[in-house]
């Protein structure tokens, strides 16, 4: 059975066109499964209306929820008429990323799809957008959908870490390739490519050590990466011409190769780093996303601990 069967689509409240919903329907038609179209909404003005009683405020919220649910139903009408199984859910919640992750947890969703927005680099460090919260904290894979159709013969490009300085890289690499191969087999036999980036020679070393030979260093690093890539591709019977070991930073190598291959999706692993280190160092996924012209699928390691808890009390108003 295909892996992704219980899809959650985060609806964009600001536009009628829903690329993430289109991509989810594309997957379900080829992969099977079902879709939940989900929208968290909140309007602070309704909470500030002191002239209304709590019951009246609740009724106003329910009215807004019903309107938005009807609007989503209109966006889904064509797919529903085709027989695509889509459930619609709108909740009142003042933190969209928390509402989405709570829905992932309570609904046991195995894939989240959301439209990707371009973010200003400086602003995104100071004000972390919902997208970045989801990339860091969502326990299931997150598919960030760019507003473009799936390219004809589009390929899946898996970015792997071949440096192996840390013990978690190898199992995460295996998980990335395994899930992508399984997905590709169920979506028009999509071609799977692997890419690994290795660093350039540090300039300060070359300056401080007169006998240091940058070309020998580069050859040694590239050789290590080629050996690691060969071992990885052989585990999944991937052809050598579908593997790429390139010199440079991942945020430069990956988008360039994705454009060259006309990839439909780039698959990345992320450890979900948060706090100061994430703000100033950044995650590879977050550096890459704004440079991609195709979709991005971000997958967490097996032992990932989600910092958000399921909303077991179901205290937020909702309508299906």
From TrEMBL:
<comment type="function">
    <text>Required for resistance to DNA-damaging agents.</text>
</comment>
<comment type="similarity">
    <text>Belongs to the universal stress protein A family.</text>
</comment>
<dbReference type="InterPro" id="IPR006016">
    <property type="entry name" value="UspA"/>
</dbReference>
<dbReference type="GO" id="GO:0005737">
    <property type="term" value="C:cytoplasm"/>
</dbReference>
<feature type="domain" description="UspA">
    <location>
        <begin position="4"/>
        <end position="146"/>
    </location>
</feature>
<keyword id="KW-0963">Cytoplasm</keyword>
<protein>
    <recommendedName>
        <fullName>Universal stress protein E</fullName>
    </recommendedName>
</protein>
<dbReference type="Pfam" id="PF00582">
    <property type="entry name" value="Usp"/>
</dbReference>
<feature type="domain" description="UspA">
    <location>
        <begin position="173"/>
        <end position="300"/>
    </location>
</feature>
């Amino acid at each position: 059975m295909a892996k992704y069967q219980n899809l959650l689509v985060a609806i964009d409240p600001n536009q009628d066109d829903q690329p993430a919903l289109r991509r989810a329907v594309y997957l379900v038609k080829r992969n099977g499964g079902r879709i939940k179209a989900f929208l968290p909404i909140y309007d602070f003005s309704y909470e500030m209306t002191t002239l209304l009683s709590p019951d009246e405020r609740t009724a106003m919220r329910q009215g807004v929820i019903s309107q938005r649910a009807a609007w989503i139903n209109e966006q889904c009408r064509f797919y529903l008429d085709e027989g695509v199984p889509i459930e619609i859910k709108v909740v009142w919640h003042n933190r969209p990323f928390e509402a989405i992750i709570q829905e992932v947890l309570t609904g046991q969703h195995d894939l989240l799809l959301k439209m990707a927005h371009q973010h200003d680099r400086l602003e995104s460090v100071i004000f972390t957008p919902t997208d970045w919260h989801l990339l860091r904290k969502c326990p299931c894979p997150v598919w960030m959908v760019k507003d473009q159709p799936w390219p004809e013969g589009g390929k899946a490009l898996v970015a792997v870490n071949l440096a192996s300085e840390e013990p978690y890289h190898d199992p995460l690499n295996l998980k990335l390739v395994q899930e992508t191969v399984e997905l590709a087999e169920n979506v028009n036999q999509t071609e799977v490519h692997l890419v690994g980036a290795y660093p350039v020679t540090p300039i300060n070393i070359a300056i401080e050590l007169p006998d240091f030979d940058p070309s020998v260093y580069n050859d040694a690093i590239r050789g290590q990466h080629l050996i690691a890539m060969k071992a990885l591709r052989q585990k999944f019977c991937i052809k050598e011409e579908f593997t790429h070991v390139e010199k440079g930073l991942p945020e430069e190598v990956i988008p360039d190769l994705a454009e060259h291959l006309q990839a439909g999706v780039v698959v990345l692993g992320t450890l979900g780093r948060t706090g100061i280190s994430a703000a100033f160092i950044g995650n590879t996924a977050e550096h890459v996303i704004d440079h991609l012209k195709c979709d991005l699928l971000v997958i967490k390691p097996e032992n990932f601990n989600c910092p958000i808890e399921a909303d077991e009390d179901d205290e937020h108003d909702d309508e299906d």
